[in-house]
Amino acid sequence: MQFDRRRFITSTAGLAAATSLSMPAWAKGGSLTHAKRGFGEVSGEDIRLAIGNHHFMTGGRSGHAVAVNGTVPGPLVRLREGQNVKLHVTNHLEEDSSIHWHGLLVPFQFDGVPGVSFPGIKPGETFTYEFPIRQSGTYWWHSHSGLQEQAGHYGPIVVESAEPDPRYDRDYVVLLSEFTPIHPHEIMRKLKVGEHYFNRQMQTATDGDMSGEMRRMWGEMRMNPRDISDVTGTTYTYLINGHGPADDLQLEFQPGERVRLRVINGSAMTFFNVRIPGVPMTVIQADGQDVADVEVDEFQIGVAETYDVIVTPPAGSHAVVAEAMDRSGMGVASLTSHKGHIATPPALREPVTLSMMDMGMMDHSAHGGGGSMDHSMRDKDAVPDDVKVGPGVDMIAPMPMDRMDFPGLGLDTVKHRVLRYTDLKAKRMNPHRTVDREMQIHLTGNMERYMWSFDGKKFTSVTDDPIRFGFDERVRVKLVNDTMMAHPIHLHGHFFELVNGADHMHQPLKHTVVVQPGGTATFDLTANEPGDWAFHCHLLYHMHAGMMQVVTVRPFPTPGEA
Amino acid sequence: MRSLALPLALLSAPLAAQDHSGHSQPAPQEPDHCAMGHLPPEKCPPKSGTEPAADMDHSAMDHSKMDHSTMDHSAMSQPSVDHSAHGAMTDKSAPGAAPESAVPPRALEGPRHAADLIWGESAMAPSRTQLAHENGGMKTGMIMLERLEARVPTDGGDTGYVWDAQGWYGGDLNRFVFKTEGEGEFGAELEDAEIQALYSRAIGPFFDLQAGVRYDIEPDSRAHAVIGIQGLAPYMFHVDGALFLSDQGDLTARIEGEYDQKITQRLILQPRVELELSAQDIPEREIGAGLTKVEPGLRLRYEFTPEFAPYVGVEYEAKLGETADIVKAAGEDPDGLKLLVGLRAWF
Question: How many domains does the structure of chain A reveal?
Fold first, then answer.
């Protein structure tokens, strides 16, 4: 009893002094406090964040968490365009940690990637990030050390624009993520050693309506048409603002109000289908950057992307549904005009099955053909010489096609309006630039070995061979997905323009682009942020497996000149 | 607004489909240089660009400029417009741009790592090592108990047991592999037992080459050199085959193949076959040259968790050829059917 009492006192102190610098109980790894669900808010020019070990519980699942200022997710960092900010980050873990400001334009040394931008934050140390805020919009922050992000080390960023924004009356962050009671390193090991460990939606003798011929064809290729997500609802509880479906999160509104929802996918591995049945959504921002209004009924959000939508719901309680792309679970909140009324979410839809398109083949069935599969699925001549086709590459898409008009796995067949990249159009004009150079980067992998890479080379084999851009160089980059999984590719420190068919002055700006299975996506980058930057797949375990590179933009100012 | 867009979209859709899918017909329009970002805005829209249009493939035409987004997708009751097919024709190359290899010289300036300038090389070095470790450099391993089973002969006789396990540790390509298997009868002496220690190297996406040593504890102490391959064959067959050269100079081989057929997500039927061959007679082990043994079996397991799956099954075991003759001469039965109860587990 005495022990419990002491823990209670520690926990109370921890919550009360959420922003205090030292919390010895955490550092000693003694009794862990329970992290609060949801997040507080920090703002101003001097912000303190403390990373510590906690427990976390939602629904029937509980386990270890890495919390910042005692909550999962960590606090909302609210900033204002044009201000300067100092962020003092203290690491109470027993391992190195870091914070990366996802989507913020910062000097590279404050981008927060250990080994690329700075040495990391040692246990017990406080590191101070300092930079001016040059933008507005919805962003997020997360650890870039180990697999801490999976354990709760992430949170939202809202940067208010310098000018007032009259587009909405009420403003909510909708931060999507996952919680798992399994230690992230054990998840990684299970992905490496266990065949589709987390997948309980495989085709079986009794499940799936694929013909025998097609099943044999997939089998011949040693591929699984239900490989939608590597980690699923079998271990994940999907969270909205740290609240699982059982936690009844409510977002209140008054009828007639325009409600801005800042949807952030802060998950480690999950693409979400976001919808509010009966309530149309007007997309106004993608990755924090204004886009021309697009009204949709549903959109798929890749890991690390953000979409801001405006909704004007009628009186009542409406379910905000964030359904995992593989449909193994969902995050749920209630958008309600009656406090205490919980909306009833719709049932999960049927699992998604991959098609020939997702393997980078022409969809023969759509052309009336019987699907004669005479393509080689690993033709080395189909890729440039700089792609290393070794054991880490189990497939090369024979006919990869531009899929920027694809709304995401499973959303191509729904009856209502869904968002596609081709719908996005920048609201403000981009500077006019001609393309100086073109490049192609292949996204490669091996499902069985759980190896992931760019151009067939894991990060370990290119640590001294970064992707090089000249300062202010304009490069058109085509990403070719030689795998059957959708990859959200993130470039640090920059916004690139999607080459999505919008006129070239209004190509939408993004920091993360989803490359659909077996397809391509193209962006234009003006490399105008000097320094070394991480470039990686934002599926956490893909990055951990090697799908990571460094992009360097040079020359950069030497400290003397800067 | 939508009522206007709808008829327009319906009108343009069949046209667009015709135009783009029938790509044998070159489209008459000029390529849209504006959309490609070749021309400054004041020149847009150009009548005919200054670009060398002659050597331009018509496929370079920017079909993506066709505004699919204004088509009301939801209004089309059927997904008759194949968006992906349009994407296929979408060439987004930027003619006139330099190739990937033409990295500008300024991109090579400065020190190897930018952060060294700010934080110093000695501060950065450990974090860079850690970064590589955390992004592709991990090592891991597992122990897999493929079969731990009791075997009941259907024609009477003593109940036997079998174990068959392997483990590995290493990276994605290079691994240390440990295998062991053996069998006996309850209440009697161990009949067969062996262990193998192998170096395993990936030789393709699905196969590893393995080489090392095998040591037999029973029926008699014997060492072998081992070379084999293990991996996943087309149609998802797990195969493991190896050649063994004993310290007596005897060459033998063993091939195992198995297939997992999911009945439900947790109930899995596994046909499995094992073949043994010998290049010569090995009298002290009652083996004759040729195919010596075949063991087809069928196991039905239930995965309470993927790591813990008890099973029941049947297996037919037959000695073959000269080996069968030797067994028969010794007054034993060369073949038999067994009922199995066992456990597949890994950790």
Answer: 2
